[in-house]
Amino acid sequence: MTSHAVPPKDPPAPSSPGREGRDPGALAAGLEPVPGGTHPREVAALLGALRGVVLGDDARILVPHSPDRSGTDVLTEVRGRLRRPVPGGTAVILQTSGSTTGRGHLVALSARSLAASARATEQRLAGPGQWLLAVPSHHVAGLQVLVRSALAGTEPVVLDTTGGFDAESLAGAARTMRADVPGYLSLVPTQLVRVLDAGDDAVAALRRLAAILVGGAASALHTLGRARDAGLRVVTTYGMTETGGGCVYDGVPLPGVTVRTTDQRVEISGPVLASGYLDDPAADEAAFTTADGVRWLRTSDRGRLEHSAPGQAARLVVLGRMDDLINTGGVKVSPGAVERVLHEHPGVGQVVVVGVPDDEWGELVTAVLTVAPGAAAPALAELRALVAARLDSAQAPRALVVVPRLAERGPGKVDRIASARIAEAALREPHGSGVERHVHGAPPTADEGSRGR
After folding, report:
1. Signed CA dihedral, 78, 79, 82, 87: sign only
2. Element (DSSP H or E) covering residue 28
3. CA nearest 279: which of 86, 34, 74?
4. Predicted pLDDT of residue 294
């Protein structure tokens, strides 16, 4: 795609004609489904549409969707799920991944919130630049690559991953990027791992980039260490569709964004917030609240704010989901905490920890994982010893299921519900390949104690 030299404009003000003049009682007026994905032709069409709705006065409401679905089907589904009028100023409707609930919400994103997110990213990084798109544009990470490109007045380089992601192809795309502006890339953790495993030729092409944003799922510390040791400027991101994408970079909120925790729940405020959920008024009221004139998003994530030194900004550490605690033998186990420890094992590629119904334990802490390239599959006893030493024995997994790849909902988003079903089915055949279960009464691991300990 060639360079686009049109200078960026500010998003329309709330009183601008067209977008704000829509009848608020018309639930689905102006909706326009637009294929996303990573095919250059469809990306170009979506980018052009975003320029109109974010930079101009185009009154359409874009509904980016998977190119595997027909626009007619998408429009029918969205219209059928709407339970409130689309708010004035809405530019885009996206669906969340639903990785823990099984079905995502319809999220209304305004032109102002999308632009605010893109501008804040420019401020935190090296300014306006050229982006390389390697994640689907109908998800928020890919959509923001296009919004940032539109605001910067640059044309993104597009890597078509329709047939799968290839690290060498990514490197080739990176070599075509402009040298007169900062270069940026957004990846999910699995893509970063594949780049590092591909060797120095693939890595070398990415060293010229000003920043590589890695989000979508928690990144293993050893993977981030490998990337930085290889000379890659990796920036971890935290955010969601409801915040227009990443709003916390390397633990620090973007300019204009405020983060707090209330009883460990992560709450976010700022101009990047979505207008709300369109499919579930009760969920919308519970998630988006206003206190002292400030609008907050109550996320479903648990976290804490850490102060490393006086005068430095507090850093957000995400601990896991509020709703994914596993109750095993009366002990509450945080899957995220266990996953972070398991990632330290050299044989672990990707891992998700789930609870499987069990007559003895209530829920059996189960690790579902892929094996790291070139490594041997870890034994359950090794993983239990690692977790027992770092956390405690009650949180150590009592079952292990090795799979070729983890189930996902959206780029880099592990599908916990599907993973739990896979684990439950595998454990019905405990002697199957890649399945191992800890036997109660077997020799204890380090600090192994009673069930309730």
Report:
1. positive
2. none
3. 86
4. 97
Provide the H-helix boundaries in 221-265. Answer: 221-229
Q: How many helices (H) and strands (E) does the chain have?
A: 12, 23
Residues 223, 266: Cα–Cα separation, whole Å: 25
Q: What is the DSSP code (8-state) at residue 238? A: E
DSSP 172-185: HHHHTS-SSS-EEE
Which DSSP letter does residue 206 get?
T
- For 312, the 3-state DSSP assignment is coil
Domains and CATH numbers, the chain: 31-318 (3.40.50.12780), 326-437 (3.30.300.30)
Q: How far is CA 366 from the centre of its chain?
A: 23
Strand order of the β-sheet with 90-95 is: 31-35, 61-65, 90-95, 106-110, 276-277
449/15 Cα distance (integer angstroms): 65
Supply the pTM of this predicted model.
0.78
Nearest-angstrom CA–CA distance, 322 and 155: 39
Average pLDDT of span 189-205:
92
The model's confidence at residue 170, banded by pLDDT at 50, 70 and 90, is very high
**SS3 of residue 226 by DSSP:** helix
Alpha helices, H only, 211-325: 221-229, 281-287
249 and 222 Cβ atoms separated by less than 8 Å: no
Three-class DSSP category at 300 = strand
Name which of 83, 80, 105, 78 is nearest 281 in CA terms. 83
% of the chain exceeding 70 in pLDDT: 86
Other Cβ atoms less than 10 A from the Cβ of 251: the count is 18
Name the residue type at position 107: V
Cα separations (Å) of 350 from 189, 245, 405, 428? 9, 23, 8, 23
Decide if 177 contacts 150 (C-beta within 8 A). no
- Binning the chain into helix, strand and coil, the percentages to the nearest 5 are 30, 25, 45
- The whole-angstrom separation of Cα 412 and Cα 409 is 8
| Nearest C-alpha neighbor of 326 from the set 301, 304, 354 | 354
Token couple for 158: 């597009």
3-state secondary structure 42-61: HHHHHHHHHHHHHHCCCCCE
